[in-house]
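Slides due. Your pick:
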Amino acid sequence: MTAIAKQEGFLETSDPALQESADRGEAKLLSYRQLYELWERQQWATQDLDFSRDRADWHERIEPEERFQRMYGLSAFFIGEQRVTDELGPIMRACPTEEQRIFLSTQIADEARHVRFFNRFYEAVGVLEGADDLAARLRATEQHLNESFGELFDGMLKGRVDRLAAEPENTELLVESITLYHMIIEGALALTGQHFIIEYNEEQNTLPGFVEGFQNVSRDEHRHIAFGVRFLTDMAKQDGRYREAIQRTMAEALPIADQVLDPPWAEEDDWELFGYSREETHAFAAQCLSRRLKVIGLAA
């Protein structure tokens, strides 16, 4: 966690996972306005990234078997960013305050930029043959995912968000949706994958353009999660029903999310990916989640 916290702008997000004090349930959380202002200061452009070295690395330095293994992480992020971009609108509209809605509007823009980041990387590097536009790349990428990914994103998340679009006044459902989106999908899954993928590429000195862009994506995600922790902390203090909604959603979704972390080609529980074991990967996700839950006021 220390290495991530030292990256420029990461600690500014106030994500409790980056604060050791969160182990005691203490963290400095930004207000919704402060999170918006941080978004303005942390802008970046996918068009500025140079993938020329990445193309040479992908085709000349990274072996075919390793490229195949890397495709699970890349695919989960590419498709995941597209899914969450599509699902955030009803969550934004259902939030009760203007400050919350304004911040989530910035997050929609972030998620769309993340999709474009992966699309630029795939296109510039030549990751997929025969897929010559965004829609084709997304279709081709889906084959690398496991069944649990579809259950979490296309079942649990989409099902809740579709209901929320029809019932925007259902605050308990909103709490469930933000728990699933910000705490589990972004917090437990996305940031865990980002941590290990970035660290591995830095150790191997591969894909520098991708690493630069992915660090920007990761910083955005920490800011999004900081919003989720702020919102859920406020709601948990407001009403016991919302505390129960958080706990209920975690109990339902975590077993599925746990399986999303496992690549579809792994036949045993002691697999390694990017030089890290299943145990290390899941322990990292658990620590991040534990810190955030303690700050919200819930036991991990």
